[in-house]
Write a structure and sequence with these properties.
The chain is α/β, with parallel strands linked by helices. It contains 8 helices and 7 strands.
């Protein structure tokens, strides 16, 4: 069994970006934890911020459960204001040392959303620090992450280095996305990502529906664990 950590800037980013891969991990018996840096409290002006945060956390739990995930962690950073700072680095590095993930999913560094880019930099640095014999405030036992995969949400990845065939999980992924009712009223993410995953499948020839990633870090030993193309 492998430990998998998915870092999502907002509730729904996890499902849009790698919902099929998450379901695939769960079916394979791997333990998946999703950490939401924000609760998405800025995702709608017709709600009170506390009300919307509670609603989106509920939506996230319902969506994750459909994929087989019950381990959720909400850091409750203000939506739209994720920062690369000491407090956030300590919290995330501590989480990595506690969970001991073999694979970590993060937004790719050129995503068009600022919160996504900040999440990328935070997680990259936290993964690095977690593996070093320093920073005792983050826990006394270092942990080195084997694989880091960059995912796409707002901005498609230009240089793809890893493809995951999610054809048998596409319906479950779309059903999970549709649990995020509060957000679908603004953007039909389900229709957008179905088209994107279909495009990735056709253009790579790896399946009917595929999720695309950047291999940011990997070990030779861990490559056999990753399903898909080899880099």
């Amino acid at each position: 069994m492998k430990q998998i950590l998915v870092a999502a800037p907002h509730p729904d980013d996890d499902i849009i970006a790698c919902g099929g891969s998450i379901a695939k991990h769960c079916q394979a018996g791997n333990e998946v934890t999703i950490v939401y840096l924000t609760s998405g409290d800025a995702g709608g002006i017709e709600y009170d911020k506390d009300e919307l945060a509670a609603l989106r956390e509920t939506e996230a739990r319902q969506a994750a459960a459909l994929l087989g995930v019950n381990n959720l962690n909400f850091l409750k950073i203000a939506d739209g204001y994720i920062e690369f700072n000491r407090e956030n680095l300590i919290r995330i590095t501590s989480l990595i040392r506690a969970i001991k993930p073999h694979t970590v999913y993060i937004p790719h560094e050129r995503d068009g959303c600022r919160d996504h880019r900040e999440t990328h930099h935070l997680l990259r640095e936290a993964c690095k620090r977690a593996g070093e014999p320093f920073f005792p405030e983050c826990g006394r036992e270092p942990w080195s992450v084997d694989t880091i995969l960059g995912y796409e949400v707002w901005t498609p990845i230009e240089e793809i280095t890893y493809i995951e065939d999610i054809s048998t999980f596409i319906d479950r992924k779309l059903t999970a996305i549709q649990k995020h009712h509060s957000q679908l009223q603004y953007y039909r993410y389900d229709e957008a990502v179905k088209g994107l995953n279909r495009y990735r499948g056709i253009m790579t020839g790896k399946g009917d529906y595929c999720e695309a990633f950047q291999l940011i870090k990997y070990s030779v030993q861990e490559i056999d664990f990753i399903h898909g193309i080899r880099s």
